[in-house]
Amino acid sequence: MIDTHAHLTDERYDGDREEVVKRAKETGVKKIICILVEFDERSMQIFNRLLEHDFIFGAVGIHPHDAKDYEKHKDIFLQLLDLPKIVALGETGLDYHYLNSPAQTQKAVFEKQLQIASERNLPVIIHSREALDDAFSIISNSGIKKAVMHCFSGLEEEAKEYLNLGFYISFAGPVTFKNAKKPKEVIKIIPDDRLLLETDCPYLAPQVFRGERNEPSYIKYIYEEAANLKNISVDKLAGIVSENVFKLFGT
Ligand SMILES: [Zn+2]
């Protein structure tokens, strides 16, 4: 099992971060992609320490919430992208639910990052919330080919548009929620060779721990539910996702 999206620098892990990492390993998590979207000294130090674990890889991006601070973080962000264990740019994208940064700024900063990713030939981890049309038009105009729509919550038609661009679609805890009809339906139409899974921890804990702090070891509940919905074994699904991770992130 691989967790393709974990925010392990979050302060909610300050008391037991190494325990959380150990628990993931003991549960059978073979790789974790740790997402860095904070550029304060503390978070960057934790991130570097996390990357010392063989099985933890990194992604760095300016989150749409912080698009307004792009110029402030730009230099350090570009430096971090050069670290040897960085396998993707992200998360980046658009979030019109929380307009922490104005939409115009979010769009400009998203476009810039897609440009940087294509110059560096890095895959992109995309966050899109309540910004369907703008996100799709920026993405399709960018010519980006290697990307994943992270924590996908859209409808079937939207998923198909991204599949047509060659993208991967990633599902998180909501696929396990009792009342979540949409992701349970949408995951069924995602071809095996385009599917990824993630916790997006510390957010969105799966149904069994809903509302609590999430962590990479809980990815097993997401694999169990996804395997069930796709009518295959967890082992088979784990093999499929590992292959997809290798194709997209090269690890
Ligand atoms: Zn995230």
TrEMBL record:
The keyword Metal-binding belongs to this UniProt entry's keyword annotation: yes
PROSITE patterns according to UniProt: TATD_2, TATD_3
Residues the record lists as binding a divalent metal cation 1: H5, H7, E91, D200
Annotated InterPro entries: DNase_TatD-rel_CS, Metal_Hydrolase, TatD-like, TatD/YcfH-like
Residues that, per the record, bind a divalent metal cation 2: H127, H150
Alphabetized UniProt keyword annotations: Hydrolase, Metal-binding
GO terms for MF: DNA nuclease activity; hydrolase activity, acting on ester bonds; metal ion binding
Gene Ontology CC annotation, any one: cytosol
UniProt xrefs under Pfam families: TatD_DNase (PF01026)
Keyword set includes Hydrolase: yes
PANTHER family in the cross-refs: D-AMINOACYL-TRNA DEACYLASE
Name of the protein in question: Hydrolase TatD
